[in-house]
Design goal:
seven-stranded mixed β-sheet; 15 strands; pyruvate-formate lyase- activating enzyme; single chain; six-stranded parallel β-sheet; binds cobalamin; alpha/beta; binds iron/sulfur cluster; Rossmann fold; 21 helices
Length: 522
């Protein structure tokens, strides 16, 4: 059947971008839209730009498919990349209708709708709106009748339509269209040495939304998926897992949900079903430290959980309050210890550069990590995402007006390298140093004593040998560890130098926060 809609996922890493294969997880947003369109007899194709060598390859595919509609999925970090891409695609297929959806249009729908050549920006959950929008174009129904979009009228003014209703029962959604998974890329290039999952692996969503209100994240999740926090039924998820195991021979699953263990009753039913149905797969998930306890750990342990990632963020209770995390340092430590106790890897996601954070707060995080010894650490500099409470406050600040580059979100907010820093109470050099230090400890050497970790390393080496991919063995098991050892050595020396020979880092002298900022950020 002729492809009617092409859905494009750009990813932060545009081509040519090699060697970042471990980040290549299948894009579930377009996979969900694709499945829903297919279930309404609208044939689709998905393109992950990261898998193409260059834009001429995209042009070739688009000319061959010649779709009537092209949909882009957009994160804020991809805002400027997509603006350029839209122009290129329009040149390739001038008659195609170009639409856009995803997290960025959901927080800034007007901005997305204003992109030249974009005819409609879908905000919030996209499935129902995508079908209604395509029907409207096909049947020449005025766009004013389609809920959940922003568009330009004939005068070029941006019109915001009322929001689309969220889908109450997520079980009515078809399973994501995994056609793209077959490219092999996602299947083979699962995570690297720091967490060598058995592969093939796949990612999965069982819920939409998050009950928490962290200020660096919300209300983005609410804008995307609303409230109440919705779960698919456990039997429905089990059916999809069976499909992944039987059709795609998947051995590991990542649950991308924001807080998988939030609904204890659901978790209980889900884990019992996995055991009852004798489904064997490894998995890891994200959760919050206040959503685990020994009872939950028993449940997840018995059904294959190998790692839990926590938004630990900080070891300072004051900072956890500033970002409205709803947790405290004690809970953070408790959760990591509980993981150690149950033999589940604890992955601590940390943040540095929070508003009003001082070097003392940073030291508290540092101490927490030293005491609790999570197995893996990921550390980011807080980036002010537009549409979040913190981000919007930052956008209103004088600092933003000074550094502003409204059309260059990517540069501004990338977590590792972003230019917009919303903290002026710690010298930037300490922010960078501590982030690097925590990153350098992201791989706790004691991992290699863990049976599960070793088993997976051997599995991976075997798979590389059988596929003749010897260079991957080198990069994952020799080059990678050597770099890690070098980093640790550097940091040990740095630590000794700074803390034994010199006094503690000095607080940077800063002017008091301006009234506008302190009111919103402080
Ligand atoms: C898993 C995840 C990751 C993974 C994988 C991301 C990936 N490339 O697939 C990793 C860890 C790599 C990651 C990294 C980052 N992430 Co992330 N991530 C998520 C998470 C938890 C799930 C994403 C997902 O699959 N959702 C499920 C699908 C179904 O939802 P969806 O993609 O939004 O799609 C729905 C709608 O948006 C819409 N839609 C989407 N595309 C399209 C296209 C069309 C045409 C239409 C009509 C509709 C439509 O319909 C879909 C179904 O309803 C979300 C939070 C969340 N709960 O969604 C954050 C989230 C998407 N990430 C976010 C960010 C900021 C990042 C980073 C930029 C962090 C950083 N600062 O460096 C990086 C860069 C990622 C990149 N460009 O690839 C933000 C995006 C905010 C924004 N304003 O853009 C989110 C929302 C988290 C947050 N609370 O702020 N991320
Ligand atoms: S717990 Fe995570 S997903 Fe939920 S609001 Fe906080 S940061 Fe966002």
């Amino acid at each position: 059947m002729k492809t009617k809609v092409v859905l494009i996922f750009v990813g932060q890493y545009t081509p040519p971008h090699k060697d970042r294969y471990h980040h290549y997880v299948s894009p579930l947003g377009i996979a969900n839209i694709s499945a829903y369109l297919n279930s309404h007899h609208i044939p689709t194709k998905q393109i992950d730009l990261r898998l193409l060598p260059d834009l001429s390859a995209l042009a070739k595919i688009l000319r061959k498919l010649n779709p009537k509609y092209i949909g882009f999925s957009q994160l804020t970090t991809e805002a400027d990349l997509i603006e350029n891409l839209v122009q290129d695609v329009k040149k390739i297929l001038p008659k195609a209708h170009l639409i856009i959806g995803g997290p960025h249009p959901s927080v800034l729908p007007r901005e997305a709708a204003a992109i030249p050549d974009i005819e409609a920006a879908v905000y919030g959950e996209g499935e129902k709106t995508a079908v209604e929008l395509i029907n409207a174009f096909d049947k020449k129904i005025p766009l004013s009748k389609v809920k959940g979009i922003a568009y330009k009228n004939k005068k070029g003014e941006i019109i915001m339509n009322p929001p689309q209703e969220f889908i109450k029962n997520l079980d009515v959604l078809p399973f994501p269209d995994r056609e793209i998974l077959q490219s092999g890329h996602y299947i083979e290039h699962a995570y690297d040495l720091f967490f060598p999952m058995s592969y093939p692996y796949a990612n999965l969503f069982v819920s939409r939304g998050c009950p928490a209100m962290c200020t660096m994240c919300q209300p983005t999740i609410d804008k995307l998926f609303g409230r109440p926090f919705r779960f698919r039924s456990a039997p429905n998820v089990i059916k999809e897992i069976k499909q992944l195991i039987n059709k795609y021979h998947v051995k590991s699953i990542i649950f991308w949900d924001d807080t998988l263990t939030a609904n204890r009753k659901w978790m209980e039913e889900f884990s019992s079903l996995i055991v009852k149905e004798k489904l064997h797969f490894d998995w890891w998930c994200y959760s919050r430290v206040n959503y685990i306890n020994p009872e939950v750990m028993e449940m997840v342990k018995k059904c294959g959980c190998k790692m839990i990632c926590f938004g630990i963020e900080s070891g300072s209770d004051r900072m956890l309050k500033v970002i409205n995390k709803g947790t405290d340092a004690k809970q953070n430590e408790y959760a990591i210890n509980l993981c150690h106790q149950y033999g589940i890897l604890a992955n601590a996601n940390l943040m540095i550069g929070m508003p009003t954070e001082t070097i003392e707060d940073v030291m508290m995080t540092d101490n927490l990590i030293a005491r609790s010894k999570p197995d893996i650490v990921w550390a980011s500099v807080l980036s002010p995402l537009p549409g979040t409470y913190l981000g919007d406050a930052f956008m209103r600040s004088d600092e933003f007006q000074r550094t502003s580059a409204h059309n260059n979100w990517s540069e501004l907010i990338r977590a590792q390298t972003g230019k917009a820093k919303i903290n002026d109470t710690i010298d930037i050099k300490y922010i960078i140093r501590y982030q690097s230090k925590w990153h350098s400890t992201r791989f706790n050497p004691s991992l290699i004593t863990k049976k599960y970790y070793l088993k997976n390393c051997l599995n991976r080496i075997n798979s590389h040998i059988s596929s003749g991919n010897y260079s991957r063995i080198f990069s994952e098991f020799i080059g990678g560890p050597l770099i890690e050892i070098a980093r640790h050595t550097y940091w040990l020396m740095y630590y000794y130098w700074n803390y034994q020979l010199f006094p503690q880092p000095q607080l940077l002298h800063v002017e008091p926060l301006g009234p506008k900022r302190s009111k919103v950020l402080g």
